[in-house]
């Protein structure tokens, strides 16, 4: 059994009529529970839950402090390359976009690593476009060997791999995976992934589980909010995380809530996700998954990120750029525009001023 079987259970589920039938009494009852089931989670994503956001926020804050303390793990992305073989309608890196393509040499990887490490960060997320030809696993492995000299935790956000390939990177020093399904609805998935290996919905859906089996220490998943009805996508993201959390007890499971941002191209969101909607998703996820990490990246505005801080967030990016060579002098076009331009030091100061401890390193290999 995989999460795909779980999704099948909801293939014919009448989401619209169910959500329309949720009552205030359902929300009240849900908020009294210590552990939520799937229907409770869906109740909290309904329109009828909006008047209860303040109560949800209070409970989300209490659960977060209980399980994580007042600590925020900081990290930054490092783009190794932007070559891609896919045609994803919503992505600035898609193969048909005329942008400057670049792949860091190993010498440039070391320069970027040194520049990032000087900020104090010891947790890094390395990214590529999705091209096995230009950025094979062997190249990523070579980069990781260099980065291990500067960072205690290295996560990857690349094309989906086989279980054996994930194991190869774990052996090289990778300890975390971020992989977004982009959209859980298979019809929409097929429509917006126009060409390339990324059209293989099932291979991507099963990738986080393959990483868990390969003994990846941490796995982070999510849907790209804006590609489909956000209530359904948030629901499936939560179910996917719960499935992984229940099945792989020695893997830390977390979720991200990325919203579509401006990028090279003219793709318009299919579903607008407002700030209030994002808050509701965050709170519902925290109440459904009290032990899951939740990441809010620099896709969101500085003021908004600051206000989300006490609602369930456990991890934030800082000093981000989405271009290859972004920490050097000659950068390419970014994958998308970021909204929070603050440096690591500025993020540190903001967290301390709000009574939170910025965490630069949460573990290291013995």
From TrEMBL:
Residue ranges constituting the Radical SAM core domain according to the UniProt record? 70-305
> Which range is the signal sequence, renumbered to this chain?
none
Q: Which SUPFAM superfamilies does the record match to this protein?
A: Radical SAM enzymes
Gene3D superfamilies associated with the record: Aldolase class I
E.C. number: 4.1.99.19
* Alphabetic keyword roster: 4Fe-4S, Iron, Iron-sulfur, Lyase, Metal-binding, S-adenosyl-L-methionine
Q: What InterPro entries does its record include?
A: Aldolase_TIM, BATS_dom, rSAM, rSAM_sf, ThiH, ThiH/NoCL/HydG-like
Q: Does the keyword Phosphoprotein apply?
A: no
Q: What protein am I looking at? A: 2-iminoacetate synthase ThiH
Q: Provide the species name.
A: Thermanaerosceptrum fracticalcis
